[in-house]
């Protein structure tokens, strides 16, 4: 009789058990053949760095400050590479994803708090995907927004189909969608003939990069930089990478096999994140070169789509000629739809990872996706219905504000994934002496974690003020600042709780490993003693083993 499965089951096994260790990798083959076998997880991770939430921040940054914020995109991408490398390494070496590792080192109550916090962060990113997907459907097929929002729920059927075809094919589909997005923006930027010298010069940060003036369209270089950083590094990517890095088969008894997995996973991740960097850089270049300076008054997806078909906003004759055919705006909408579908896959897998890791619950991927998407659809539908009687511009602005304001949850959740990740990969107890972070990775890691945490919390008052709209009063500003500071104090208190629990958990692990070592040593000595012909022979063999260990 076939085993009957419940919709929600207890889960405390390997991370993403259905795909864990299912992909074969070659041994003693050439570099490129081996790299091909490991390629895929990095693409799923890179998707989070080019999702719809990144688009308006990069394009608006280019419109307002030319190439000044290119350096912010570069720095964010380098930090992302470092954090994703550590996440993949944690999963491969410890055989636990980040959620499982945190839960194993912390109390049950803290685990539940962190799970809820991370769920909110995933829902925040899902709101951006709902908005991006619905707008893409509206722009491409003229489907009313309310109906388009409901259609985005139907992507659960796509996910259900993908789960039947195998993980390698899912990775291939994601790579193809990334290439579509990359092609669209390469094509549009190539037509615009940008000033590449100024673009490359913008990769070097200056004192103006994080300045609080000038203010253009209500944005300063600092707020523009914070927007790009906030939209780039997302907590769910760290949980996801620590899980899907375990899809490749590895012999954990063989240190060389583990080292190969870590090495090629890093290559895969860095190559794919480099592609994400180019997409985000091209978006900023679009803001500078495709449109006339200050021409884009509406930074929402609607406004960008219209600007790509409006010859008065474009910067040169070639773009104007192509725009008349409607291909520029159509390609933009296609790329937006591809971005939303990519995020569907990664968001669902991330949600499953944190649910299994933090609260040991598992549900089918299609059900997980359906629940998350329906919850994310609610605020979007409310926003659409509240603005249905107003002008289309008001509706567009409201949706854009909802997408940007939803990202506030990322500022809360990010430190609680970065800090434990750094602590565990720094630890020889967790990783062993060979795989713990080296001195330079440790130094850059701490700099990145502290800097990102500071910038996220520093930008929190501005994010809370954004909830009040453009015409905020002095009283509302004061109220927003009070709310922000209460939240900042709450985040810092929760961080202290996490640090204390992580330290206690690490000490428990040290004690446990020491006890296991003593027990195994006594058992080994007893076996040697029984096999030795004399006490002198036993002493000789024990001394030889001790000297070998010291060497």
Going by CATH, the architecture would be: Up-down Bundle
Distance between the termini: 57 Å
List how many beta strands DSSP finds.
2
Widest sheet: strand ordering: 1-2
Spell the H/E element sequence.
Answer: EHHHHHHHHHHHHHHHHEHHHHHHHHH
GO molecular function: cadmium ion transmembrane transporter activity; manganese ion transmembrane transporter activity
InterPro entries: NRAMP_fam (IPR001046)
Main location: membrane
Transmembrane segments: 65-88, 109-128, 134-160, 172-190, 271-291, 370-388, 408-427, 439-460, 480-500
Give the tags.
single chain; 551 residues; mainly alpha; Amino acid/polyamine transporter I; two-stranded antiparallel sheet; 1% strand
Give an overview in words.
With 551 residues, the protein is mainly alpha-helical. The protein has 25 helices and 2 strands. It has a single domain, classed as Amino acid/polyamine transporter I (Up-down Bundle). Strands 1-2 form a two-stranded antiparallel ribbon.
């Amino acid at each position: 009789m076939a085993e009957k499965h419940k919709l929600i089951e207890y889960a405390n096994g390997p991370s993403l058990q259905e795909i864990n260790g299912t992909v074969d990798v070659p041994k003693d083959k050439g570099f490129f053949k081996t790299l091909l076998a490991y390629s895929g997880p990095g693409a799923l991770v890179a998707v989070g760095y080019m999702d719809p939430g990144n688009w308006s921040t990069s394009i608006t940054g280019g419109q307002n400050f030319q190439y000044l914020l290119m350096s912010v995109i570069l720095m964010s991408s380098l930090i992302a590479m470092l954090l994703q490398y550590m996440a993949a390494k944690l999963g491969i070496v410890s055989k636990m994803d980040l959620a499982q590792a945190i839960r194993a080192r912390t109390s049950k109550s803290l685990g539940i708090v962190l799970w809820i916090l991370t769920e909110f962060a995933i829902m925040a990113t899902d709101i951006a995907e709902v908005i991006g997907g619905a707008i893409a459907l509206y722009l491409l097929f003229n489907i009313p927004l309310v109906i388009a929002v409901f259609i985005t729920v139907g992507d659960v059927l796509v996910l259900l189909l993908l789960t039947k075809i195998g993980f390698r094919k899912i990775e291939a589909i994601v790579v193809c969608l990334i290439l579509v997005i990359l092609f669209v923006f390469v094509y549009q930027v190539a037509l615009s003939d940008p000033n590449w010298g100024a673009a490359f010069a913008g990769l070097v940060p200056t004192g103006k990069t994080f300045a609080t003036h000038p203010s253009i369209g209500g944005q300063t270089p600092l707020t523009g930089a914070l927007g790009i950083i906030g939209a780039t590094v997302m907590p769910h990517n760290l949980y996801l990478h620590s899980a899907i890095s375990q899809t490749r088969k590895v012999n954990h008894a063989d240190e060389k096999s583990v080292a190969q997995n870590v090495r090629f996973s890093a290559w895969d991740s860095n190559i794919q994140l480099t592609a994400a960097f180019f997409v985000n850089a091209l978006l900023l270049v679009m803001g500078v070169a495709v449109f006339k300076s200050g021409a884009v008054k509406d930074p929402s997806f609607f406004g960008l789509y219209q600007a790509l078909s409006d010859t008065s906003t474009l910067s040169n004759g070639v773009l104007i000629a192509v725009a008349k055919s409607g291909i520029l705006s159509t390609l933009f909408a296609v790329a937006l739809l591809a971005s939303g579908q990519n995020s569907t896959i990664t968001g669902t897998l991330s949600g499953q990872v944190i649910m299994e890791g933090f609260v040991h619950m598992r549900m089918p991927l299609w059900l997980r996706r359906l629940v998350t998407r329906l919850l994310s659809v609610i605020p979007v539908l409310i926003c659409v219905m509240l603005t249905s009687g107003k002008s289309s511009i008001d509706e567009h602005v409201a949706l854009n504000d909802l997408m940007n304001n939803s990202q506030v949850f990322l500022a809360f959740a990010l430190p609680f994934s970065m800090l434990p990740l750094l602590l565990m990969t720094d630890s020889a107890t967790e990783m062993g002496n060979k795989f713990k972070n080296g001195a330079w990775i440790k130094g850059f890691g701490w700099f990145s974690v502290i800097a990102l945490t500071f910038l996220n919390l520093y930008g929190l008052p501005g994010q809370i003020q954004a909830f009040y709209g453009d015409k905020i009063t002095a009283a509302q500003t004061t109220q927003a600042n009070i709310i922000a500071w209460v939240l900042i104090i709450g985040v810092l208190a929760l961080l202290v709780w996490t640090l204390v629990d992580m330290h206690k958990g690490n000490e428990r692990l040290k004690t446990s490993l020491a006890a296991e070592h003593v027990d195994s040593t006594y058992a080994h000595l007893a076996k040697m003693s029984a096999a030795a012909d004399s006490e002198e022979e036993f002493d000789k063999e024990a001394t030889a083993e001790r000297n070998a260990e010291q060497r």
